[in-house]
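Bit of a strange request maybe. I'm writing a small parser for structure token strings and I need a real example to test against, not something I typed by hand. Could someone generate the tokens for this chain?
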Amino acid sequence: MPNIGYITIDPDNSWKADLGEAANSKRLWLNSLVSAHASLEVATKTDEDSTRTMKAETAGRILKSYLDKHLHESTTFQGAWQDEHAVANRLFVIIAFLHASCGGADPSIYTTLSKYVPILRLLFEADKHAQWLNDDKHYIENNHGTMMDLALAQFAVFLKVIDPVTSDRYLATALRRLEKMLDSTFDDDGCCTENSPTYHFVNYGLFSTIEQFIQHYRLGNTDKWGAKLAKARYVGHLLLRPDGTIPLVGDSEIRPGTFFPKIEDESSIGGIGYYPSAGIFVASINNLHLTFRAGGSKFTHRHVDDLSFTLWVQGKEFIIDSGMYNYDTSDKLRRWFISSRAHSGIYLESAGHILFKNFESPMAMSEFTSERHDSEFFNIKAVHKLSKIEVNRELEYQCNTLTITDHFQSHQTEQWRVQFVLHPDVVISQVDQLANSLILRNGSTQIGLREINGRGKLEIEHTRYSPTFMKEIENRTICFHGEDTSVRLAFEITIGAPHGKT
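Reply from user aminoacidic:
Good idea to test on real output. This should exercise your parser:
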């Protein structure tokens, strides 16, 4: 099992696993039957008879063991019928077994599979899953819901010749919800509303697959889909940096986990994207790639990253978000990665422990207030309201200089901190301690960072960075902090700064 290791599936002591960290994700994989599907895939692609039969037997044994066991177990299979992602994944797998058992594979495979899970039981289990997915009370309006609908639509197509009435009912539900989700998932300009570049690519892949599925089986008109996905393709190329990496905004990993089509004319890559409904501003100009976060329309995959930014220069990362680590909010380290302390923004200590449930919407947490740009210049402003005090940030870029201006005003003294989270490869050199002036180098690329008005105390903190799932690396954060009733801070980042003393 992925990230778990070997588990036994014998009748007396089956499916026991020490889930440890990221237990929710590992439980999802257990309940998704990924190993059964992998074994079936290997069997269908194997030419050697004995190996093909052996893999088919393994697939059948895993599926039978799970189906016999999971309804009566409350530990390992906790959430088997509460996790919509797992239910959708299981239906995908059962459909694959149905296809193989109905003659969609080598005869030796469906003969072998029928010894373990007869086709009538597969149909019964598939329909049980489809009924659950068809019920709107189980529906989740994010990428999990989209996967629910794709699984439901696939089973509807399979069921068409057996039970056309039930097939039409399932298909009508799936297509109705998918039309709504297409508009909900991507804003009018094609940017994903799930607060994460990774999930922009995940959703683009999902909806592209569904578009092809609808076209192949002639289930409906997809003109609207094509127009929306064309816009999403452009946004994807804007989010992708020239080296193929993406910024770790929200629940992201450093590279897209799904296929994304290359653009034919690479000279057209780049530009500026302003997506207030999705909560992100992106600039990719002059060998610089920057993101800036505020607002949005959903809490899905969102972090407390209001007014944070990332900066990539000439192929090197400098100012970053820390990553996601895992999806298990019961994990103390995961909660830290979500928190404001893991992001490059300005925060007040009076905001305390920030919970999404305390805000009516992401727009109640923060929002963009103005934006203007041309091909070589941008100015973007936003405000966050994580405490009762409004905190303002303005980013302006021109002539290879990024100026960051932060300010707030309060009736009482506020402890504030401005953070610049650094990539682990960044080396810090101090030019002038009194002037809070630094040089940051990553390889042969360097930038200068200076606090213009000298209001904050400078400290370097040791933190954590997670470029991929369950991986953490030591890194550092530059922090300027102080106490004031009102303050106006200004920082200047210059590209190609002179060398300082390490």
